[in-house]
Write a structure and sequence with these properties.
- By secondary structure, this protein is an alpha/beta fold.
- Helices cover 34% and strands 30% of the residues.
- Strands 1, 2, 3, 4, 5, 6, 7, 8 and 9 form a nine-stranded mixed sheet that branches.
- It is globular and about 45 Å long.
């Protein structure tokens, strides 16, 4: 792991309780994803305190959350004790091949330092998806020339262009269904939502 990524994870470890109080699920982004699912098994990658995992479970899906932050997993298990949460790295997911119908990656790839890491994560998502599995990714949109930024709190962010994200999907074995520029919650700028199939 590189230093900026470690510092980002350390920030989430330290601020997990406060972050979990301020965040909520992303129901507004889920419809297109669920409409394209062929089955019920979803992996919520970078699940944080588990709100999206719980959202999918309440919709009738068999949702599993995975996050590298030990404290997030602890909070998620406390909040939603009936659901399955695993501490794990999405560059090496603790799941077998072809085991999920959908992978949901809401605001998680944007913390990876290099494009090579992003590609490796997408390849891992492909590996754990069943044939015709669906991948949803949401990241921050690049505005201007700045590709990366380290916030004052020490967190690292990577920004993406729309065509760049589509190319990354194609290079890692996904066919793009849709790719849209969208608003980020709480006026935090613009994001890009992309949906693809294996």
């Amino acid at each position: 792991m590189n230093d900026v990524f470690n510092r980002t994870i350390q920030w989430y470890e330290k601020n997990a309780e406060e972050y979990s109080r301020k965040t909520s699920n992303h129901l507004e982004n889920a419809t297109l994803f669920t409409q394209n699912l062929k089955g019920k098994k979803i992996l919520d990658v970078g699940c944080g305190p588990g709100y999206d995992t719980e959202m999918f479970s309440s919709m009738g899906y068999q949702a599993t959350g995975v996050d590298l932050s030990r404290n997030f997993i602890k909070i998620a298990k406390q909040k939603f004790p009936k659901l399955k949460f695993i501490q794990g790295n999405f560059l090496l997911l603790p799941s077998s091949d072809d085991s999920f119908d959908g992978v949901w990656a809401q605001a998680s790839l944007l913390h990876l330092k290099t494009i090579e890491n992003v590609k490796n994560a997408l390849k891992e998502f492909n590996r754990v998806l069943k044939p015709d599995g669906v991948l949803y990714v949401r990241v921050k949109r690049q505005v201007g020339t700045k590709k990366t930024e380290i916030k004052k709190d020490g967190r690292f962010f990577r920004y993406f262009e729309k065509q760049e994200l589509q190319n990354l999907f194609n290079e890692t074995g996904f066919s793009v269904i849709s790719c849209e520029v969208c608003s980020w919650k709480k006026k935090r700028g613009l994001g890009i939502s992309i949906l693809g199939t294996k």
